Amino acid sequence: MSTDIKTIKQEIRYFLLINFGLIAFISIFLFISATKPNSSKLIHNFSVMFMYIPAFSVIVVLKKISKCEFTPNVEQFLSVFYTFTLVRIVTSIVYTFVLKSTFISSLIDTFISLYLVLLVLSKGSEFEVLNLSLAKNFKKIIFVVLIFFLLNIGRSYVGSILEGSSTADMNIDFLESIWAFIIQFCFGFNLFFGEEFGWRYFLQPKLQKLYGKRCGVLILGFIWGIWHLPLCFTLYNPQTPVYGVIHQVAFCMLLGIFFGYAYMKTENVWAPILIHLANNGIIMLGESFESAITIDGILIGFAVNAIFFLPFLFTKEYKSNNVEESPTDVG
């Protein structure tokens, strides 16, 4: 990672302009899709495609702005991801006006995920430059993923108590969540890499360099949360979108504390990728989209997430105000 403050600010600025600029442009077609009958599949397709954008933005900054060079396998990985992000954007826009099925996009996602995950796993040492070698701090990765599963069990019980429902009514089966985790590992790697390469690998250390570890990760959480705004209006909470945005920002800021802790502890993007993957799998098993958010729901959600995630802001990983430089960070 560059230590020059001017360079860091420039890279952040370009990343945010590309990332949010693309999201704003794509959201035009997302909102058009939302007006169509039986729009659910189209909206879900856009939500998946959104996940490509942060990593795509990083690749543009690294290659076009910072002029970074990598080994052939890493270059191939980045080029394939970059190319198929553009393909996904085009196909999603075409779906809005022409097609009723999103089958082609599903095939693209499956193929790219399998290809990229196999490339990373087979050429692991080369990907240390992107903090993407699974062998690096593997035991620590397993440790933080297991902690996250335990935290989610606790969150589910406390949430049930605060909502006044019986803990016996909890509808997240542990074995089902493990199965969802395995499936998404194979077929969704590209998506979770797409977000975490942007948020944790690229943006987190740069914001922490500018604002300190704690403030930097909270700023990142806000950016991560507000990035979901178009989906709050169309997919997550179309009945109460403003409340949905507030809930999403609060959730991402608190969850981002744990993600930031996991990334700093492991110095490996695999940690937030696997945690993000597990989180989304649990959400899909235990919650339904298009739900209305209330003030009480926001407060309960904030309280529960604060209880389980806020303490990590006081771990040793956050104590030093300066970010340690990693020889594998680039950009």
UniProtKB/TrEMBL annotation:
Keywords: Membrane, Transmembrane, Transmembrane helix. Pfam families: Rce1-like (PF02517). The chain crosses the membrane at residues 12-34, 46-65, 77-97, 103-121, 141-158, 178-194, 215-236, 242-262, 269-286, 292-314. Residues 179-281 form the CAAX prenyl protease 2/Lysostaphin resistance protein A-like domain. Coiled coil: none annotated. GO terms for molecular function: endopeptidase activity. InterPro entries: MmRce1-like, Rce1/LyrA-like_dom. One of its GO terms (biological process) is CAAX-box protein maturation. This is CAAX prenyl protease 2/Lysostaphin resistance protein A-like domain-containing protein. It comes from Romboutsia lituseburensis DSM 797. The lineage of its organism: Bacteria, Bacillati, Bacillota, Clostridia, Peptostreptococcales.
